[in-house]
Amino acid sequence: YEAQVLAAISASKAVIFQPYIMEDRTYPPSPESLATMSSFQTLRSKTEEQVKPRYSRSASSHRTVSINPAVLKQKLSSESAKSSAKSVDELPLSKDAIEAITTFCFPDNARVYSDKPDSSVHFLVLTDVSGSKTYTCCLTFYKPYKLTKEKDGNVTCVLDDFDHSIDDSLPTQYCYMPQCCVLVSKFPYFYAMKECLSCMISHVERDLEEMFQFLKDFTYTMTMTPVPPAGNVIVEMSVYNLSVSLFPSESPEKPVLDLPLHLAFLCFPIEELLKIVTAILCEERLVFVSSNYALLTIVMESFQYYILPLSWRFTYVPILSASSLELLDAPGTFMMGCNSRHLTDVQRV
């Protein structure tokens, strides 16, 4: 079936798209509610001995900074002032991003399942026409629904608690349908976003209204968290008792490193790695194939780090959806990734 965007939330605006477009006037929270939010987010100091990066980094020491709540309050006040000056019909994200995001959230198309699949996470890198990149982390989870066929032939879909006391003679089918929560950032904090989403699973598998309220609070916390500048400042936040650290880039010229660079060495022998790097430097057409969508983006982003200070200047699509395979026939140089079930199409090209 065709997936739909249910809601979009940014630092200053929350818009519901279903059953019709409506802006939530209670968002963002008022500055007075910061006291309530303090239990939701904490930014605290650590000694240098306590700082243990997730991945191998340079031997230079790092320090963390404590953020004064007054700073957050001042930022919130300025955001509220900006929000009030904006038009009502302005969207939290660009219209193009909202229209395209469902294609990448469900690269194999949205499907109905008789048995509940496991929740999963995958990453995306979206590039606009100007070449600017945004980085996303997608959490896909599944909710139980009841499908009922009406007398007129239409099928109604209702969130269900699986109470099977209903007469089995009715044309009713119980199933699981996927839903996806997406974090979008201008910075490649892939694993930090993954850790944040990991604490959401027990909260989003709720009633739709409760889930939306949680997502508003969750988004507010994320958007109020400052990104550390290049250097030795680490920002740490706490989301529902889960501590997440945002590590800075080592210098302004280098991007943020928040992924395990060794995974590519586990996926390819050294000879193949050298061939791939050579192909990238020679600006050849490359297609990465994997059965794991999350692995595709991580490995392809790793190669972007391997060639620094050089950069890939051509089309870059880490995850190609099943409905977009015709892009493999596009002329010119590109780097794309797709699922291994489409290997035949890749070999044909």
UniProtKB/TrEMBL annotation:
Domain UDENN: 60-349
Sequence intervals crossing the membrane: none
Protein name (record): UDENN domain-containing protein
GO MF term (any one): guanyl-nucleotide exchange factor activity
Family matches, as PROSITE patterns: DENN
PANTHER family given in the database record: DENN DOMAIN-CONTAINING PROTEIN 3, DENN DOMAIN-CONTAINING PROTEIN 4
Domain of life: Eukaryota
Gene behind the chain: ORF110797
InterPro entries reported for this sequence: cDENN_dom, DENN_C, DENN_Domain_GEFs, Tripartite_DENN, uDENN_dom
Upper taxonomic lineage: Eukaryota, Metazoa, Spiralia, Lophotrochozoa, Mollusca
